[in-house]
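tmp note - Integrase catalytic domain-containing protein
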Amino acid sequence: MYCDASNQGLGCVLMQRGRVISYASRQLKTHEVNYTTHDLELGAVVFALKIWRHYLYGTKSIIFTDHKSLQHIFDQKELNMRQRRWVELLNDYECEIHYHPSKANVVADALSRKEYTGRRVKSLTMTIHSHLSTQIKAAQMEALQPENAASESLRGMEKNLEVKGGRAYYLMDRIWTPKHGGFRNVVMTEAHNSRYSVHPGSDKMYLDLKKLYWWPNMKAEIATFVSKCLTCAKVKVEYQKPSGLLQQPEIPEWKWERITMDFITKLPKTMSGLDTIWVIVDRLTKSSHFLPIKETDKMEKLTRTYLREVVRLHGVPISIISDRDSRFTSRIWQSLQNSLGTRLDMSTAYHPQTYGKSERTIQTLEDMLRACVIDFGKAWDIHLPLVEFSYNNSYHISIKAAPFGALYGRKCRSPLCWTEVGDTQLAKGRVPESTLTGPEIIRETTEKIVQIRERLKASTDRQKSYADQRRKPLGFQVGDHVLLKVSPWKGLIRFGKHGKLNPRYIGPFEILARIGPVDYKLNLPRELTRARARARLKPVSSRAFNEPIPSSSRVALLVCNPNYHYQLPNGDLEFGLRALWNDVDVLSIAQYIDD
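out:
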């Protein structure tokens, strides 16, 4: 039996009286790649004994290997656990290990290595003949004919043209390219779309061409030609100012009727197995619940927790803003909310700005938990109840009050302010409780809610004004054509098999209808009917491209700005839209994080 090993695999051949009985080989496993040469060669022997056990067990055999030290494996004193296990296996067989030079062990060596085909060098002879100059000369003759001269619009420059190089017309050593015959487009196409130029920008293309060619209004025509290139629109990065005005969610009318929720995952696992926090925030009062759970908890347990901690204390909410977590998209969760009459407002995939309040609360919660662990030690779940108390009893700048005070109408009793909150006092500066009637309490609570809504409105308006200073408004008409941006997020499905070299945009697609201020219905091909999207839009006429626009046959809804309540067609592809105009900047998506 001849055995050999390489850094790619194991190979062995079984022979008797000079005739081959069997061949065997396999690729190295992931952990075997790290083996030493000694262990690999010994592993090849063990592999052969195991696979041909029915031939070798109880029979005397000789094992040939090109690793000389294996001859003394039975006498070796210091063995690791793997080698000891293999030596015990070798003792079950009547075998001897002999050294065989690697030059002679060619069969087993070939079996242990990957086959490589020999590289072939192909000779190529190529002769390039350019007929462009000859064609331009002929076009110049035609353009100077009286019936064609008027369309050239030389603007008096024909007097400066001089004949060089066999009747060709030049202006200051630059060949004049006439409009007649369409040779300007031929020159620009060669300078922009060929393998020798590969889509340069308009400025680079003009600086290259102006040294050799001349025609009136040359720079503007080159800029127009480049702006109509569909390939450039699909692959070029845009650096222009983002567009799309910020879309703010509706301010709730009452406490805990509109909420947001999210999960903090991958926390250190506690003694009780908790590793996740369910964060639920009221969008009006900013009061929150931090519920410790396990990441592996079933939806039945989560629904019971939701009913116990939210519905029992605050009633059934009107709407819930969340991401597209598998828990929130499950049938159990959707059936529960449908039966309760709660609308699920899910964001587009991989866009946390939509539910910014939860994200901002999560940042604060994580910082508070870090501080508690540093100052007080122990596991995070021990501190979580008091962290929730501290958060709800702390001043919130957007409502200019603590969430606890906004929710219950008075400050919370704590060791710090126990003298300020008495048994007969609802709030500082108010009359005793015994003198307040029911209607007065209702009126006071209603006035506080109105104040909170006004403060939230001022905060969101201020935020919107700051965001809109760095953006442009969008305006689109039915019939405009747009390109669809492929999301750069890791792990999402891309179009084609080019990986990182996929186009940034696909399309163009026609806008069929305007659904709302920032959402549009597009005519998409069949494979994109399940697309859920955010858009970067700009209108363009179908005549603007240098190549025809393909027709499409499906419809999907695409949103150009992150808005909390937009529910789009099924699917998990994340997109942005961008439309093209001849000389207008490309727009980009607006961002939104609630405070």
